[in-house]
Amino acid sequence: MRWLLAALLMGAAPALAEEAPDMRGLYLQLIHQARSDGRPRAALAYLDDFERRYPGDVEARLLRVNSLIDLGQIDAAEAVPLPGGVEDGGVGAVRGHLLAARGRWAEAAAFYERAGRGRPADALLRNAWGYALLRAGRAEAAIEALRGASDLAPGDAVIRNNLMLALLVGGRRVEAEAGLRRVDAALRRRLLSEAARVEAGR
Predict the structure, then answer these.
(1) How is residue 156 annotated by DSSP?
(2) How does pLDDT run across 25-36, given as a tens digit for each residue?
């Protein structure tokens, strides 16, 4: 089904895009799906086509930055022009991602916090904020942010793991153990190793 959607979108004539107001949304759905599937190069290819049809689209620019970050192309990601002076959660989050990619955790956390005011129910944004706080040496604040993210998305494994990591780094070993008992041995070793690495990097 997904390949069919891609073929229809990539082959659509510009006139069709004008006739179908939802074509933009279908394109963006395809690009988001490519990123979710771990195919950032496909996302960038779709974005090239999308931006010929919808030049200057802000959401497309944000997706381009995120796709380039996925590929580790941070210089290229930073070169993508973003709107300035806009209180928009998406723009703020992407600016946070760029700072996090450079290891500027305290600055990234500040952007994530501001972005979260516009998107308070966004569990992944709250997770990014919590992780940035943790890497900036603010374990207690990180635990609180990650607990909020976990409440919003209790089944998300990344959020769960980041919360356990923050509990370990913050010295909340008893609370961390409650979660560690529910994961397999390999993940437990990775979390303990990552906690030691984060603590050593302070």
Answers:
(1) -
(2) 888 999 999 999
